[in-house]
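Researcher: I've been going back and forth with a colleague about how Putative tetratricopeptide-like helical domain-containing protein might be arranged in three dimensions. Neither of us has a model we trust, so I'd like an independent prediction. The organism is Rosa chinensis, in case that matters for your notes. Sequence below.
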Amino acid sequence: MDLFSEMITRGIAPNVVTYNCLIQGVCNLGQWKQATRLLNEMVSKGIFPDVRTFNILVDALCKEGMVVEAKTVVQMMIQRHIEPTVVTYNSLMDGYCLRGAMDEAGQVFDLMISKASMVDVRSCNILINGYCKAKTVDKAHEIFKEMRRMELVPDTITYNTLIDGLFKMGRIQEAEKLFSEMLGCGQLPNLRTYTVILDGLCNNQQLSMAIELLKEMEANKVELNVVVYTLVIEGLCKAGKIESARDFFCGLSSKGVRPDVRTYTIMIQGLCHHGLIIEAEKLLREMGGEGCSPDGWTYNTIIRGLLNNCETSWAMKLIQEMLERGLSADASTMELIVDLLSKDIVDPALLQLLKDSR
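Model: Here is an independent structure prediction for Putative tetratricopeptide-like helical domain-containing protein. You can compare it with whatever you and your colleague have in mind.
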């Protein structure tokens, strides 16, 4: 805004491009009053909003969940004889999807289809993602088939989204079939594709397949990151395969992968569930030495592990340590302490310690 003021001072007249940049900036900051003021100001100066101006407003409003207001802006465009573009409708459709209003999102899509050449791959991806999030994967698959009829080529995002949706519904074979189809169409999978598949396999108790895929990825020199390995470690921990999870965790350094806070916390959680609390605290101490500071989630995880293993005094020491680090107990920890207090399992001083820290 300072630069804008300087422009005016120097007698440089702003144009629609200038205002579009300003409106984009204030919208990104969520400053709607400023955006409205700038819009009114440009009109008062005889600078009329163009399609880009309206698209900025529609997109920003939708991202903030203000879809009703966004629809009003679209209607305003039409009244001003500014034809909404595919970008406009994509933003509006995405806004409805983010709110889970899939009927309205579908209506926008149908409107786009009725306007020749209005739908693009992104339009389909938005609706497919919305349907998958709403757990209506069959409707998502219908859009996928509709793409072929419209001669639109599904991209990696399309496949990733639909594969993820199928896995989340437990439809493993269909997800695997779609992945094979993706490869057959010459659409190259990216790291996100593999992450989706590994996550899907682990969450559907297909650990042997997940590990086999991981080994295949390593053999094919796919550049893997800590997220991929953490997914497998988490899957092994949830399946009670703590030894295998530990082996994977200990082998990360040899692969040139550094565990992050999430990796450590998941491993600590797995150890606690198996009563291996000494090893869990050892890992907590190791984190700091590796330059990976434990966060609130890490502390709450091990504290709950200690409490569940009747190690109240030990838990109190870690709670004190957590509070000294400026971290606090989360809802799950508080709930567990209240539950244990009702059973006279823990010292009431524990709850008081947490209350005093707030």
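Researcher: What would you highlight for our discussion?
Model: I'd start with this: The mean pLDDT is 89. After that, consider the following. The radius of gyration is 26 Å.
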